[in-house]
Design goal:
Layout (H helix, E strand, L loop, with lengths): L1 H27 L5 H59 L2 H4 L38
Helix pairs in contact: 1-2
Keywords: Proteasome
GO cellular component, one term: proteasome activator complex
Protein name: Proteasome activator pa28 alpha subunit
Length: 136
């Protein structure tokens, strides 16, 4: 996937360079000259076609990566997970786990419970609302 990202960056940089060249040529061309206007249109069309071609080639690589990722995910879901569940069930059914009661397994956590905080006042009353001052 990193190669695809590098390829996309390369295509973007090439596109920017080609676009700058087209802009330079169009700026130097005379707007009143119909021949140079046709040349500019041709350059813009070539630029667009070239960019679309490069982008579609990269799009194919991205689509191939997505397809391979889907195949790997399906393989894992349909084969990997059920196999792992069977293995874990077999481990649970062994003599080490079968005869143990979960009630016998207990551990005190010793987490202290903080005292309830009644606010910032010492008399236990809630603080009064703040007065809003206006700049009139």
């Amino acid at each position: 996937m990193d190669e695809t990202i590098k390829d996309l960056r390369t295509v973007e940089l090439e596109q920017v360079e080609e676009y700058r060249e087209v802009e330079k040529k169009s700026a130097s061309a005379n707007d009143d000259d119909p021949v140079s206007a046709r040349n500019f249109e041709g350059m813009a069309t070539d630029f667009t076609t070239n960019y679309e071609r490069k982008l579609s080639a990269l799009g194919n690589k991205v689509q191939e990566y997505i397809d391979s990722l889907k195949v790997k995910a399906e393989e894992l879901i349909f084969n990997g997970f059920p196999d792992k569940i069977v293995q874990l069930n077999n481990i649970i059914e062994t003599s080490n786990f079968k005869n143990k009661l979960s009630v016998n397994v207990h551990q005190d956590l010793n987490i202290p419970i903080p005292a309830a905080n009644s606010g910032n006042t010492s008399d236990g009353l809630l603080p009064a609302k703040r007065i809003k001052y206006t700049n009139n």
